[in-house]
């Protein structure tokens, strides 16, 4: 059915095809890059554009405090659905992640009954709004080695709104 000779012929055919492919690639590169001046060709036709030299307008990013001051807790409640998969809002109700009741202002790695990875404590002592703002943007970037697999929330407005919602949970 499938003996050693068949396997040897198949392997030889695959290796031979790879060799032909690599030799063809080398020959094509040799033919099309004869001059040795790779990537420094002169454009045959240049299109003039007005204000081509003008710098692009940069949007000034606000400081986290400014986003947090303008935050809307009701908008943050809608964003809570992203966190709900792994976290709970009830005190002491740990899930995949620690409970987030009263997380704003709480010490890092202080949720009772949750086994933390230890990476968070090395980067912050207290979950201030600013620390949460940075953490929610990119958890792995803020605390490399954290076991939180969430990719992050890129929008600063969304992060501020979520923090405002979390801040009101222990009132």
UniProtKB/TrEMBL annotation:
UniProt keyword list: Electron transport, Heme, Iron, Metal-binding, Transport
Taxonomic superkingdom: Bacteria
PROSITE patterns: CYTC
GO molecular function: electron transfer activity; heme binding; metal ion binding
InterPro entries in UniProt: Cyt_c-like_dom, Cyt_c-like_dom_sf, Cyt_c_1A/1B
PANTHER family cross-referenced by the UniProt entry: CYTOCHROME C
Name used for this protein in its record: Cytochrome c
Species per Swiss-Prot/TrEMBL record: Citreimonas salinaria
């Amino acid at each position: 059915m499938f003996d050693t000779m068949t396997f040897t012929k198949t392997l030889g055919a695959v290796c031979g095809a790879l060799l032909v492919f690599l030799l063809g690639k080398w020959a094509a590169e040799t033919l099309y890059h004869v001059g040795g001046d790779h990537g420094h060709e002169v454009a045959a036709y240049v299109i003039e554009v007005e204000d081509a030299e003008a710098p692009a307008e940069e949007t000034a990013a606000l400081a986290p405090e400014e986003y947090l001051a303008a935050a809307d807790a009701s908008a943050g409640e809608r964003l809570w659905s992203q966190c709900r998969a792994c976290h709970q809002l009830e005190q002491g109700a740990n899930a995949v992640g620690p409970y987030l009741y009263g997380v704003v202002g709480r010490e890092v790695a202080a949720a009772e009954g949750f086994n933390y990875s230890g990476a968070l404590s090395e980067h912050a002592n207290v979950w201030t709004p600013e620390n949460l703002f940075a953490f929610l943007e990119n958890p792995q970037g803020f605390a490399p080695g954290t076991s939180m697999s969430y990719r992050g929330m890129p929008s600063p407005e969304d992060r501020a709104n979520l923090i405002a919602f979390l801040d009101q949970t222990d009132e």
